[in-house]
Every structure is written in structure tokens, then in C-alpha cells.
Recover the amino acids of this structure.
């Protein structure tokens, strides 16, 4: 796409030299969110600006990945081996180190449009320079901010073909951004496209695969390969599992699915696998929590409880690890095709993926091809595997073994010829469209080890394709049939407004990302539904508060776009309901400790009848009740803390939970906690605890010193308190 071949360089300083030679000293540097950043290029550019105050550098990005930093001696002992195991060799961002210390030079500004949840609460620079932008508007907003250099991490072609590269984990913005930069250059503006090779990246297909000629400079040397940033799986809590169980009953077989990263996504996928593979146990779990009794009409209308016979298709901005788990378990298997006519025939059951001679007549009847095949018709039939083998189209004739045949489907000899070259199954189908990915190490390993044919089932493309219907609405609507767009929020009001990205103070917690895009798409699709997941409560120290509130001074999704809200206590179907009914539904899924207060607020505001009472069946929404029902199911091996495995050892999980509990106790019951630790100071640790002390290096002779004995006492106390 570029006018000249890229300049391959093997030194990062030479790459940065080229940027300054071309652009001068004012650089607005755009790099993808999360994994797709060219770390070495970003660091060299930043350090050059840090040394030279004449340089004016703006970095615009999102989710700048950082190794976790311990906040105490005990955390350091626990995390040290984990950090080395998971992140050894990862190239950290120099601008993030200075941002964390509030030491960015005055000639450098860092703006992000999405952040790690809660990661910038105490960073004035990050809070002040945050750009609130819809994911599909990010390129527009970057250009408005003067974007003139865009760079990303790319994967080399597995066969060593220098003419092709893959944007792998991040075609999300570059697919749209690169043509915009080229257009800007044609209009006389100076701009550059920079790539950095990393052979650890999975080589992904779809729109992620591009000609390398689009790049002006590519940094290409094995010494710049670095390990991909791994995101370990978080444990799935009881509330998470309950939310996942409820959501899983609203996923339609033969439908479409979007979910995000984190424990809630793992919970949904875990329940979907249970529904598909252990259906009797799944139905038993649903019944145990009265889900069919309460929501049968809704489940029958939009979801289901049987196995996924036809499967689902993924249409998700983030290709998360759970989509691989759904694929491995035979759930993510509904293929979609990039031709609206063919997709419509598949949706209506007129054809299947198995190719038959009748397809020619069906395609003619539905105006996909002509009775007399044109070159375009022939190419279409070859592309989708309907015609296969050594058959050509030349000079308005079908040519086989040197003999020419009429391309007219009405002729018997033509049909006989085509039937001899008939394929078996449709080609070019994909089971998932994604725009970016990041995940645990085994997720990357799985993608890297997949045969090319399987990897092509996961088509990476731009966020403007995945996150909205605009542009080829007919095809996208057909592909995303029965779309279930599942997102998470922090809080939800009684009237259905959702708080996901920030606080009423204006502080940004994460960012809107693509949430609004999926909300609007769910409403635009005739059979689409939006499912917002919100844990009913949050805990800070000993204080528990409700995440369902009467009102809040900030919202991400306004109340007029409300649809379905799910908490661990059930499903609130809000779409199309009047305010008093919305409030009634929300009260049913609130924690019972807060229902009375919320109901009183609604009555005082005149938003619900003064004589309304919450039905008896919904007045027992307590963690204890859920725990009681869940216990026998967990004992049978279901609803595991890590349903798809973990990068942590059992000892590390045990210690992490114990130390977190200790941290909370110190914050809320300091004197009692200190007394408890002192009580363990001279005691002999039980044998069962000794392997855990060994992991913390607190079983050694030096533990006789006072400091080490105090640390050991704290760990023993924490472990005993955590059970």
C-alpha cells in the first residue's frame, strides 16, 4: 500500500533516527492498546525526548502493560518467583516508570483512552490527560490530536516471506489508521508508519495479514524479540459463578456471543461448557437456584438450556482465552462467511456447509450467480470451495485438461463437468472475529501451535468491523444473528443506568472502550440482546455496600439503553418496561441487606407505588444462601475457582488469599491483628504450614532473627485466619 518498500533496520536507534529525520521534533506517537506496542521503539523514542527538551513528544495509547509491583516485604517474597516465571524478559515501558513517579519531563505528555481498572486513580498526569473516546472513534480522535507517527508490533511470516506480516494481536485500530495516515501523506502532511517484528507473536490471518510495504520502517532483528506479556487468570468467585450461570441460560444455540476478559468471562464460559458437556448437572444447578422457575419465559424466548448442537459464533473486540476454551469444547463452531447471500441461505437452513450439486440452482435462484457463469461467478464458486480441482475460466469458457466447455449451467455437459469438480464443504468460514487479544501464556502457546487452517478460523480485523454495524450492515446483521453482547459494569441504578468507567468525582477508573458500541449494536439488531453484569455488592475492609444504587452522579450507559442486568441473585429484564417495573426488577436482584433502603428511596421519590412490597421469594438474597446451595455442586467438581487452569501453584494461591486477608485486617482491625501476630511469634508453626513458609523463605535458620520471626508470625497468623 505504501509507495516504496519498507526500510528494514536492525538497530532501534537507527529506527528512531529515521523518525526524527523525517518528522522533526514534534511527534504525536500513536501505539495500540495492550500487547501490540513496539516496546523497544517506544522506549527509545521516549528516552530521546527525555534527554532533549527541544523534542515535543505526545504518546497516545491505552493499557500500557506493567509488571506487578509489591507493596510490602511479604508481597515481594510471594511475587518475586511469580514475576520471574511469568514476566522475565518482558521489556517495560520507560515512560510508565516515570509516570508512576510523577517524573515525566515537561516536554512529554502521555494520554490513554483506556486503562487498567483502577490503575491511575492516584496519577494526576494520567487523570488529566485521559481521552474519553468510543473505541470506534479512537482513530478519528488520534488524528484530531495531530497523530503523525503510528507504530505497532508485528509478526513475521512463518515461511520467512518478507513481503507479508501480521498485525497479530492488534489490527483493532491499525486497519483503519494506516489508510488514514497514507491519505494524510497524499495530502501533503508528513507522517510515518513504523513496525517492530517479534517472532513470539502468533501469526494471525484475516485483515491482520498485510503487505509489509505499508510500513516506512520495520525494526527487524532477533535481539528485539521479547516475551509476550502474560495476564494470569483471576480466581472465579461465588458471585462470578452465579452471574455466569445465569448468563449462560440466555445464550442461544446457533447464535453469536461477545464477552470480555476476566473472571466473569471465565464464569460464563465455564457454565456454557457445563451446559454443553454435563447437561444433567447443569440443569440440576439451574434448578437448585430456581433459575428456570423464575426466568423460564425469558430463557425460552432468547436463550436455552440444552447442549450447543449448532454452536455459537464469536463477534468480540477482544479475542479472550475463553473463546479458545469454547472452541476446544465444541461450542464455538458456528461458521460465518463474508458473503451476505451465502450467509442468509445458511441462516435460513436453505443450504448447509456440505456442498451439493443443487447449490448451483439455489445460488442462481437467489441471484448469487448467473445461469451463464461469469468470471466473477466462477471466482466466487472457487473461493468458497464449491468448485475445486484443475478447472479454469478462460475467454468465457470453462477449461479442463485443455478442453473448453460452455459456462452455461443449463447445459448437461457443463453440469457434468462441474459435478466432477464439486467440493465437499464450504471454505472461508470463520468461527470468531476479533480485534485484539491478550491473555495467559498458554493462550499464546495454543495460537502459535495451531495449524494454519485452524488459526484462520479466528479472523483478526479492525474494531470498526467488530464493534458496529455501520458499513455492510446486511452482512454483519446476518453473521451476528441472536447476538448476546455481554459486558460488565461497576454499579447500576434502580432505573437501569450503568456505571462502568468512572466515578461521579470525574476520576477515570478504566474507560468506555467498546461498551457503548456493543450496547447500541444490541439494540439495533432485531434479535440482539445486551446483558450487563454487575456484582451486587462491593467490600472495602469490613464495610459492604450495594452496587445497585438509587442514583449516581455519573453513568456510562444511560437508562434509555437499559436491557438485561444480571447479578449473582438473578436476571432483571428491563427492556421496554416502565420505571416502576424496572425498579421492581432491580430490587429482586439486589442483595437483601440493601433492598429495604433502596425501596424506601424509590417510594420517597414517587417512582414506585407506596404500597409495593418485594415478593417473598426475592427477600433472601444473601451470600450465605448462595454458598449453601453451591457447596454440594463444588464438592462434585463443578464451579471451580480456576475452571480453565492457572499459572499459579496451589501454594501461591493459598498464600495470596491469606495475605490479602491479612492486609484487610490490618486496615480495619489493626490492634487485634497485631495482637494475633504477636501470639504466633514464639509458637512452633504446624507441619501443614511449613511448605508454605518454605515458599516464602521463612523456614530457614535466619528466621531466628527478630525481623524474620515477625514475618513468619504474620504469615502463620494469616494462614490460620484464612482457614
Amino acid at each position: 500500500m505504501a509507495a516504496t518498500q519498507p526500510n528494514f533496520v536492525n538497530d532501534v536507534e537507527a529506527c528512531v533516527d529515521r523518525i526524527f529525520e523525517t518528522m522533526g521534533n514534534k511527534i504525536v506517537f500513536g501505539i495500540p492498546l495492550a500487547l501490540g506496542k513496539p516496546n523497544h521503539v517506544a522506549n527509545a523514542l521516549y528516552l530521546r525526548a527525555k534527554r532533549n527538551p527541544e523534542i515535543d513528544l505526545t504518546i497516545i495509547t491505552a493499557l500500557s502493560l506493567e509488571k506487578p509491583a509489591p507493596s510490602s516485604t511479604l508481597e515481594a517474597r510471594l511475587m518475586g518467583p511469580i514475576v520471574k516465571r511469568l514476566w522475565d524478559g518482558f521489556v517495560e515501558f520507560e515512560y510508565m516508570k516515570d509516570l508512576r513517579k510523577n517524573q515525566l519531563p515537561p516536554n512529554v505528555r502521555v494520554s490513554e483512552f483506556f486503562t487498567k481498572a483502577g490503575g491511575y486513580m492516584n496519577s494526576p498526569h494520567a487523570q488529566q490527560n485521559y481521552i474519553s473516546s468510543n473505541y470506534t472513534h479512537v482513530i478519528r480522535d488520534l488524528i484530531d490530536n495531530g497523530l503523525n507517527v503510528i507504530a505497532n508490533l508485528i509478526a513475521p511470516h512463518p515461511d520467512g516471506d518478507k513481503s507479508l506480516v501480521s498485525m497479530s494481536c492488534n489490527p483493532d485500530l491499525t486497519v483503519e489508521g494506516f489508510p488514514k495516515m497514507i491519505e494524510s501523506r497524499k495530502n501533503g502532511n508528513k507522517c510515518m508508519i513504523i513496525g517492530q517484528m517479534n517472532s513470539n507473536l502468533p501469526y494471525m490471518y484475516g485483515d491482520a495479514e498485510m503487505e509489509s510495504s505499508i510500513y516506512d520502517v520495520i525494526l527487524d532483528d532477533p535481539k528485539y524479540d521479547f516475551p509476550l506479556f502474560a495476564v494470569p487468570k483471576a480466581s472465579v468467585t461465588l458471585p462470578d459463578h452465579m452471574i455466569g450461570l445465569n448468563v449462560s441460560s440466555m445464550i442461544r444455540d446457533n447464535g453469536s456471543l461477545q464477552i470480555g476478559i476476566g473472571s466473569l468471562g471465565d464464569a460464563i464460559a465455564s457454565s456454557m461448557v457445563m451446559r454443553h458437556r454435563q447437561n444433567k448437572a447443569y440443569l440440576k444447578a439451574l434448578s437448585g437456584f430456581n433459575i428456570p422457575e423464575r426466568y423460564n419465559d425469558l430463557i425460552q424466548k432468547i436463550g436455552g438450556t440444552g447442549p450447543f448442537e449448532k454452536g455459537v459464533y464469536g463477534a468480540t473486540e477482544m479475542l479472550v482465552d475463553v473463546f479458545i476454551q469454547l472452541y476446544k469444547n465444541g461450542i464455538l463452531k458456528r461458521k460465518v462467511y463474508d458473503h451476505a447471500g451465502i450467509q442468509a441461505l445458511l441462516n435460513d437452513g436453505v443450504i448447509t456447509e456440505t456442498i451439493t450439486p443443487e447449490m448451483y440452482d439455489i445460488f442462481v435462484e437467489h441471484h448469487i450467480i448467473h445461469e451463464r457463469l461469469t468470471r466473477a461467478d466462477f471466482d466466487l464458486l472457487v473461493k468458497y470451495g464449491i468448485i475445486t480441482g484443475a478447472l479454469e475460466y478462460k475467454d468465457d469458457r470453462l477449461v479442463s485438461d485443455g478442453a473448453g466447455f460452455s459456462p452455461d449451467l443449463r447445459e448437461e455437459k457443463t453440469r457434468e463437468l462441474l459435478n466432477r469438480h464439486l467440493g465437499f464443504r464450504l471454505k472461508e468460514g470463520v468461527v470468531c472475529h476479533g480485534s485484539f487479544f491478550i491473555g495467559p501464556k498458554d493462550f499464546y502457546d495454543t495460537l502459535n501451535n495451531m495449524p494454519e487452517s485452524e488459526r484462520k478460523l479466528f479472523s483478526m480485523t479492525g474494531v470498526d468491523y467488530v464493534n458496529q454495524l455501520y458499513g455492510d450492515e446486511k452482512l454483519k446483521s446476518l453473521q451476528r444473528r441472536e447476538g448476546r453482547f455481554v459486558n460488565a459494569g461497576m454499579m447500576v441504578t434502580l432505573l437501569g443506568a450503568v456505571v462502568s468507567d468512572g466515578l461521579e468525582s470525574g476520576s477515570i477508573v478504566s474507560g468506555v472502550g467498546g461498551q457503548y458500541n456493543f450496547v447500541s449494536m444490541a439494540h439495533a439488531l432485531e434479535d440482539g440482546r445486551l446483558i450487563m453484569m454487575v456484582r451486587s455488592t462491593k467490600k472495602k475492609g469490613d464495610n459492604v455496600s450495594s452496587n445497585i444504587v438509587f442514583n449516581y452522579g455519573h453513568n456510562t450507559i444511560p437508562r434509555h439503553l437499559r436491557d438485561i442486568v444480571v447479578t449473582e441473585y438473578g436476571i432483571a429484564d428491563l427492556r421496554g418496561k416502565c420505571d416502576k417495573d424496572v425498579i421492581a426488577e432491580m430490587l429482586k436482584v439486589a442483595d437483601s441487606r440493601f433492598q429495604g433502603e433502596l425501596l424506601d428511596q424509590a417510594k420517597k421519590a414517587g417512582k414506585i407505588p407506596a404500597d409495593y412490597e418485594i415478593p417473598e421469594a426475592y427477600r433472601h438474597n444473601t451470600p450465605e444462601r448462595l454458598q449453601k446451595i453451591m457447596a454440594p455442586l463444588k464438592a462434585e467438581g463443578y464451579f471451580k475457582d480456576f475452571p480453565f487452569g492457572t499459572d499459579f501453584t496451589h501454594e501461591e494461591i493459598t498464600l495470596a488469599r491469606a495475605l490479602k486477608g491479612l492486609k484487610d485486617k490490618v486496615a480495619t482491625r489493626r490492634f487485634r491483628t497485631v495482637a494475633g501476630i504477636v501470639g504466633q511469634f514464639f509458637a512452633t508453626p504446624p507441619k501443614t504450614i511449613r511448605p508454605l513458609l518454605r515458599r516464602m523463605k521463612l523456614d530457614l535458620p535466619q528466621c531466628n532473627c527478630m525481623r524474620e520471626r515477625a514475618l513468619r508470625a504474620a504469615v502463620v497468623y494469616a494462614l490460620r485466619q484464612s482457614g
